[in-house]
């Protein structure tokens, strides 16, 4: 049966298998109490970063465009879903149903923003596209920080000044409190939900890459003029990849928002630093390599926590690992060594068969 499968199907099954095995091992360790509470608490963030890395790789690796505003789409998904969950907390008592609706809202809003931003922005290329998408991420973060929303018996009240400017009734409650964000979001995110979201993300991205649309997107990446000359609609396929990537980032934002009691927008979680960190996962894992993005996201998220006991040397070791991964993936000699030895093992395996 495996012989009849094509190369892409085998590769996809390996990727799914790797994720499922890792999940089963971690769930077993958590169930038996072999994992510390600190490590257990980082499982959902790992799922979030894996989804972000895989979705960004769709734009950077498959489409071939450099986007630095991915954290902006995550921010949109996080705040729209948290706003819904906070408003519906007492209306929809079923936590799973409420979270599912919040997830759909977060993904839909992020996708809409992806379309709105993508239509004008995707006319740009290279550094210009990177600068504009970076600006989008910063604008979204700053808009959230000046937004005040309250609700009372008369409905919703909006302001960009302060809480007092909302002019609410005494029974009113503040939902979005500017720089202080949203407090009291139901903490519905779990490791199981994060794992399911990773599988859904992989299913969407891998099927898209191996489809006719995916081949058209890669043709645009390889040679835009040649792709256009054979009748491929450049705008359509670029916007498709950008929107799907934005929607998946919105889903990661929903997981992030429902994993915290207080959701705020700052540079570290929804700003420039976050976008660069996600890009680092993609680059170190290999541009266009989905499996590599997953491995890089897991290792680089776990490493600072595992090295926390080393204190002074923690960031030094982290930097060394970053450099080692970069050299292993991108240095010409390392690529030559890898191809030589991996091809040797592959030939040996085929000879045994």
Provide a short characterization of the protein structure:
By secondary structure, the protein is mainly alpha-helical.
Any overview of this molecule?
The protein is mainly α. It has a domain at 44-145 and 187-306. It has helices at residues 7-31, 37-41, 43-63, 70-87, 95-121, 126-145, 191-209, 212-222, 224-229, 234-257, 267-270, 272-285, 290-306, 314-330, 332-352, and strands at 148-152, 155-159, 173-177, 182-183, 262-263. The strands form two sheets. Strands 2-1-3 form a three-stranded antiparallel beta sheet, covered by helices on one side. A two-stranded antiparallel ribbon has the order 4-5. Strand 1 (148-152) and strand 2 form a beta hairpin. Helix 5 (95-121) runs antiparallel to helix 10 and helix 8 (212-222) crosses helix 10 (234-257).
Q: What is the percentage of strand-forming residues?
A: 5-15%
Distance between the first and last residues' Cα: 14 Å
Record the strand order, biggest sheet.
2-1-3
Report the total helices.
15
Succession of helices and strands: HHHHHHEEEEHHHHEHHHHH
Alpha carbon gyration radius: 22 Å
- Please identify the oligomeric state: single chain
């Amino acid at each position: 049966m495996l012989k009849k499968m094509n190369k892409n199907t085998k590769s996809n099954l390996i990727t799914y298998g790797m994720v499922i095995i890792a999940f089963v091992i971690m769930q077993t360790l958590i169930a038996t109490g072999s994992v510390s509470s600190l490590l257990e608490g980082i499982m959902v963030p790992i799922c979030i970063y894996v989804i972000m890395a895989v979705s960004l790789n769709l734009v950077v690796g498959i489409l071939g465009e450099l986007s630095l505003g991915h954290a902006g789409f995550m921010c949109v998904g996080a705040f729209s879903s948290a706003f819904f969950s906070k408003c519906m907390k007492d209306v929809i008592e079923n936590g799973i149903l409420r979270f599912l609706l919040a997830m759909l809202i977060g993904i839909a809003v992020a996708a809409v923003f992806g379309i709105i931003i993508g239509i004008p922005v995707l006319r740009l290329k290279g550094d210009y596209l990177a600068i504009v998408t970076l600006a989008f991420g910063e604008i979204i973060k700053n808009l959230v920080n000046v937004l005040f929303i309250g609700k009372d018996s008369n409905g919703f009240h909006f302001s960009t000044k302060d809480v007092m400017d909302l002019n609410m009734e005494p029974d009113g409650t503040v939902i979005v409190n500017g720089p202080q964000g949203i407090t009291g979001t139901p903490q519905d995110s779990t490791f199981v939900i994060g794992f399911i979201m990773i599988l859904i993300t992989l299913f969407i991205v891998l099927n898209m890459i191996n489809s006719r649309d995916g081949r058209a997107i890669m043709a645009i990446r390889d040679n835009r003029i040649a792709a256009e000359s054979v009748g491929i609609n450049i705008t359509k396929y670029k916007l498709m990849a950008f929107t799907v990537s934005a929607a998946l980032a919105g889903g990661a934002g929903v997981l992030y928002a429902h994993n915290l009691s207080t959701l705020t927008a700052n540079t570290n979680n929804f700003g420039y630093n976050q976008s660069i960190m996600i890009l680092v996962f993609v680059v170190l894992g290999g541009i266009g390599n989905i499996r590599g993005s997953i491995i890089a996201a897991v290792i680089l998220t776990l490493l600072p926590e595992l090295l926390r006991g080393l204190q002074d040397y923690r960031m030094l070791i982290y930097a060394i690992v970053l450099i080692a991964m970069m050299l292993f993936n991108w240095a010409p000699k390392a690529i030559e060594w890898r191809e030589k030895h991996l091809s040797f093992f592959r030939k040996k395996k085929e000879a045994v068969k």
